[in-house]
Amino acid sequence: MKHFYTWAGILIVVFFSVVGDVLMSRAMKRVGDVHEVWDRHGLWRVVTQVLSTPTFFLGIAAMAVAFFSLLFALSWGDVSLVAPAAASLTFIGNAFAAKIFLHERVDHRRWLAAIMVAGGVALLAG
Amino acid sequence: MRTGFRVTFRKYLVLAGVTVFAAAGDTMLSHGMTQVGHVSIHHLQGLILAVLNPWVAVGILFLLAFFSSYMSALSWADLTYVLPATSLGYVLLALVARFALHEHISIMRWLGIMLISGGVGFVAGGPSVTEHTDESDSSLVTESGAPLVGVDR
To answer: Quick check: is B145 in a domain?
Structure first.
């Protein structure tokens, strides 16, 4: 049963991490290239544009839920399993989500990169 | 259809910031928290005291810098382009542990370093932006109405 809670916790962390990253990416794409905006209109314009994007706050909320879920998951399972499993599954989940929700062209090169990075993180942190 | 932007030196600096600030922030925070000790969920005021620890405070500043760089990078690059850069922080920490702190790194960890570096190399060699919906195209047009024409590399 402990195993079930651990993996359920890991999947919840991965879900909210992916949702947070996707929402943040979408929010910043709406804001536009911040270097451009900063150069043309100054830093204040960047700040107001970010703060007037509702998706930004949803992204922050999802990231906060992911963070606290990670704390709970760490109290259910071993850190040597939870941390690398959550980190590496997030890379794979993000590749899927970026393709489906952000319409990024995730080609063979990026799939391979996501799998290599996920494997590498699991080996390094494990 | 746009398939990519040229990544300028300034943008590589932002990506380097994503990597370095995350690794430095995490390290300082974890070092600081070992000094602070256990924080119980029933005594959350301990967290406020933790912020007074200089390592924790500087760690939080670094993580804020990381988050700003991360948001900046996401404004001009794909999520699947930026995320592998964040993973380079793990490699950086392992290399610091090996060469500055003279810790032993196992074969499996070296393999992990090679996998991450290879994965990042794969992504870095491709275009930084590939989104191709009408909506995202229109949102990435400059104020003068001219599209930010991408350059395939």
So the answer is: no
Range of the domain at B41: 9-138
Reported pTM: 0.81
Residue in A21, A22, A120 nearest the CB of B119: A120
Span B99-149, pLDDT tens digits: 888 888 899 989 999 999 999 888 887 788 886 554 444 444 443 434 443
Which among A88, A11, A16 is positioned nearest to B116, based on CA atoms?
A: A88
**Nearest-neighbour CA in chain A from B93: distance (Å):** 10
Interface contact flag, A24 B87, Cβ < 8 Å: no
pLDDT tens-digit map of B17-76: 999 998 888 888 878 878 877 666 667 677 777 888 899 899 999 999 999 999 999 999
Number of domains in chain B: 1
Kindly give the interhelix angle for B79-99 and B54-76, rounded to the nearest 10 degrees.
Answer: 140
Partner-chain residue, chosen from A28, A115, A117, that has the shortest CB–CB distance to B74: A28
Q: Show residues of chain A in contact with B143, CB under 8 Å.
A: 40
Distance from C-alpha of B81 to C-alpha of B74, rounded to nearest angstrom: 9
**Which residues have C-beta within 8 Å of that of residue A23, sequence separation ≥ 6?**
A55, A56, A58, A59, A62
